[in-house]
Structures are given as C-alpha cells and as structure tokens.
C-alpha cells in the first residue's frame, strides 16, 4: 500500500538512516549502528537512535537512559547505550519513537536500528546487512525460507553491507574485529588466561559465527550452548553452565546478565570495520540529504 501511494510515510525534518536486512536472524546490525554513531560524531553530527526493543513489552515509547536494563528496553538498545551513550528511544512504532527523540534531544540525524520493512517512517538512506556466510539461504520468502522481502528489494537500497564476506559485486565488505575478553563484574580486570578452557554461549541470530570466532582466536571451547535470539536468562541456568569453566558470551548477551554476573563470566566485544570508500559515500549522501532538508516543513 505504501508503494501504491494508498498510505503515506511520515517525513522527518532530519535525515533518517535505516540499518536493516531482508533476512530473518542476525546479520550484524548492532555493530553497524555503533560504527555509524562513531563515524557521524567524528564528522560533527549529533546522531540519535530509534529501535523496536525486541524481546520486551514496551507500551508506547521509552527514552533509553544511561544504564538502562535489557529487560526494560531490549538487549540491543541496552548494548548500544552502554557503548555510546547516544540519545535513543525505543518503541514498536518507529514514527512515534522518532518524534519523541526529536522532542527530547538535539539530534540532527536519526539512525533506525532495524526497520527496513517499517514503511510508515520515510527514510533517506537505506543500508541492508547480510550474513556473508549464510547469505540468502534458499532465497524463498518466510516461512519457506529466510527472506522478509524478495531479492528485488536490494535494488532500491543505498548500500548492501556483507558481514564476513566474501563480498559480491556491489556489496561492501564489513569485518567484525574482536577485542580482548572483558570481565562482566570488573571491566578493568587482568587479561583472561587463554589457556583456560571455556564454555561459550550465545543468544544471537548466528551463534556458530561467535563460536567460530572464539576458536580462531585460540580459545579452547569445552562446550558451546545456543539460545534463541533475544532470549532472557536466569542466574540459575547460567550458573549451571559455568560450574567448572569460565563462561564467555557475546556483548549483547552480557547486558542481560549484569545484575547477577559471576566473577568468572566474560564477554567478547567486537567492532565493525568498513571501508574508507563506504565512509566517504555515506557522508556525501548524508550531506546532500541534510542540505535538501533545510527548511523542509515537518511531515507530509
């Protein structure tokens, strides 16, 4: 109905960048959002973020505060806030979330964490992420395959970012660069002894990617445990996993465990790495959009 003009998308007075995908499951959106926040800040922009807050029941919209808990705003917003302290609003209707963000914060660019298919919100730049290992599966739409929209949708986005490669023509390669393990209770703790066998757990879209990364870094995996994406944890079930060996998890999972973390629980931070060509192209496109929107009246 949006394509046919039966329903109209709401246009905002500031540029809107949507970071999403056409497949179900994780593809690296959260590290990409953090990368964009840092890139835009270096260029003098004041970015803000809107997100759905998957896995939690949010009524209306919620302004995400510093130290927000994953059980209140969702794991990805909590992780983004912990990393960047960016102005952020979560809510099921991204138009409402964006309006609250504009009312509550002095932002000049809005980044939508996911929402490629949320057509009620007009967007100026679309970034589609894909898992370079799994790509588009059998290329069928849900429920027969992993696609939310057909591959034709990629013809209309501004950038297709391939997480992990190999990158095909017209795709931008992104790498996730792991850092040293961080202790949940004491981030300043001494470096983890890599000779210690570990239990690795993950509640993300592609847990095997996380386990493979740990193996490639030289960690000895005594056991690996997969949970469903966005799953909440209890202290008892995680304690049962880490009776013998240290427990290592993703950063997104760590924000859900801060209140009951044990001294031998660790997480692996990763940082997105993109090409200078992508940075230049994105900033050039953003500058064009910002200039066009100067003096643009609110809404349509």
From TrEMBL:
Is tRNA processing a UniProt keyword of this protein?
Answer: no
Is the keyword Disulfide bond assigned to this protein?
Answer: no
EC number(s) on file: 2.7.1.130
Keywords assigned by UniProt, alphabetized? ATP-binding, Kinase, Lipid A biosynthesis, Lipid biosynthesis, Lipid metabolism, Nucleotide-binding, Transferase
Instruction: Write one Pfam family the protein is assigned to.
Output: LpxK
Under SUPFAM superfamilies, the record lists: P-loop containing nucleoside triphosphate hydrolases (SSF52540)
Q: So what does this thing catalyse?
A: a lipid A disaccharide + ATP = a lipid IVA + ADP + H(+)
Q: In which pathway does it act?
A: Glycolipid biosynthesis; lipid IV(A) biosynthesis; lipid IV(A) from (3R)-3-hydroxytetradecanoyl-[acyl-carrier-protein] and UDP-N-acetyl-alpha-D-glucosamine: step 6/6
Q: Which domain of life is it from?
A: Bacteria
Q: What InterPro entries does the database record attribute to this sequence?
A: LpxK, P-loop_NTPase
Q: Where does ATP bind?
A: 23-30
Instruction: Describe the task this protein carries out.
Output: Transfers the gamma-phosphate of ATP to the 4'-position of a tetraacyldisaccharide 1-phosphate intermediate (termed DS-1-P) to form tetraacyldisaccharide 1,4'-bis-phosphate (lipid IVA).
Q: Which PANTHER family match?
A: TETRAACYLDISACCHARIDE 4'-KINASE (PTHR42724), TETRAACYLDISACCHARIDE 4'-KINASE, MITOCHONDRIAL-RELATED (PTHR42724:SF1)
Q: Which family does it belong to?
A: Belongs to the LpxK family.
Q: What is this protein called?
A: Tetraacyldisaccharide 4'-kinase
Q: What is the organism field in this record?
A: Shewanella inventionis
